[in-house]
Amino acid sequence: SHKNEHDMMDHSTMNMENDHASHTNPIALNDSTGQNEIALPSIIEPQNGLVNITAQQGETEIFDGFQTMTYGYNGSFLGPVIKIKSGENVTLRTKNDLLEPTTFHWHGLDIPGDGDGGPHQILKQGQSVDVNFTVNQGASTLWFHPHPEGATAEQVYKGLAGLIYIEDDNSLKLNLPNDYGKNDFPLIFQDRHFTDEKQFDYNAVQNADGTIGNTLLVNGTFNPKLTVGRERIRLRLLNGSNARNYTFKLNTGDAFQQIATDGGFLNKSIELHEITLTPGERAEIIIDFSKFDAESDVALVNEENIRLLPFKIEHPKSSSTAIAEVLNDYMVTEEEKSLPVTKQLELFGMGKMVTINNQQFDMHRIDFTQKLGETEIWEVYNKPDTMGGMIHPFHIHGTQFKVVSIDGEDPAASLQGWKDTISIEPNQTVKLAVKFNNKGIYMFHCHLLEHEENGMMGQVEVK
Ligand code: C2O
Ligand code: CU
């Protein structure tokens, strides 16, 4: 169709201009008109330690008057927030009601390898399995999504993604906004391409570096807006896109506070004017709306000033008290800084020719082993090619790591916290302090989902 040709042209233009290394994306998003109040996932908590999660297919009215074929967990589209507590023993009862195989991967969760939901843990249609673990990490916003070899990207695209909130004793004492749906909101950013009949058009963009769409959904809502009060509002941002990067800013130019990285709170909130999240990454931010009023035009925009999420400001001003000065006790120790590099990884390539240490993924090959509970330094280098190369968001399963250095320097303040996915620019070298608290086989890969599908993935066995 005409649309396809247009997209392919956009992509080849991108290649010629060598835009890969920048934060710009090959196809622009449409501005949100703010027509629809954003959907909020329901929250589920363990009942007697048990949480049921079923992957299913259904239909969702994303656009007025159209039914889109979608995938979801416990519903037709996306998934609930699974809320669990540090120290709690939890059984996740997973079931596959799709008409194809899937897996349940808990992105960012410290979980035994056989429950991690990587490509080895396939559930066929109708199958069910229990995953039991004890929550042994701090307050954080994690997520879950499928991971079957060859179908991860498309299943996520159709709607399989949900959030996990971990709470701990600390998080409840910090005076952070935590009234769900009032001053504490999850925001899942995903760009999509739709056919004229408003069906997901996964193959519309023949872009092996990842599927980029022109239509933004936030929590699955098209043309979203978020109604907020005149108070401090906490936003838990997830880049749940297959391949698009977002640099989030306020259209007013105002600053906001970042309070958390992928895997927990920063030690202190930091003031930022923008934050970039690559696929798989999360951040929690606080925006102070008390200085705005009902007439203010406030929106989250991206690096191209496209309106991602306009805010509707309502309700009288409420007096929000100051958030705690100290949020966490994260640190990279001197010992960790002085450890030798014991694993080296070289990310290379674009499109279908993507490799880690010159190899593509092989489910029958273990690339590394690591001892349980031992910290090792992984040095990950993004090797540029003659065209400059591109950003790869590097993710490790089953753990949260520390960023020790980037090109030999301390990481930026917004990376001084627990991470499970790190954006690596061409020619950058990052050193990560990696420790696993459970045994098993874990994936590490580029979180551009089409790069992962194309083999930019390896396996570490923890013994
Ligand atoms: Cu979001 Cu292999 O992970
Ligand atoms: Cu990549």
Account of the 3D structure:
The protein has 463 residues and is mainly beta. Among the domains are: 36-168, Sandwich (Immunoglobulin-like); 334-462, Immunoglobulin-like, CATH 2.60.40. 7% of the residues lie in helices and 41% in strands. The chain has 4 helices and 32 strands. The protein has helices spanning 2-17, 152-157, 334-338, 449-453, and strands at 36-37, 43-44, 50-60, 68-73, 81-85, 89-96, 105-107, 128-134, 140-145, 162-167, 184-192, 215-218, 221-222, 224-230, 232-239, 246-250, 256-261, 264-272, 274-277, 282-288, 298-301, 307-317, 341-350, 353-356, 368-370, 376-383, 392-396, 402-406, 421-424, 429-434, 440-446, 457-462. Strands 13-12-11-15-20-17-18 form a 7-stranded mixed sheet, with no helix packed on it. Strands 1-14-22-21-16-19 form a 6-stranded mixed sheet, with no helix packed on it. Strand 17 and strand 18 form a beta hairpin. It is globular. Mean pLDDT is 93; it is low at 1-23. Copper (II) ion binds at residues 354, 392, 446, 448, 451, 456. Residues 57-170, 339-463 form the Plastocyanin-like domain. GO terms for molecular function: copper ion binding; oxidoreductase activity.
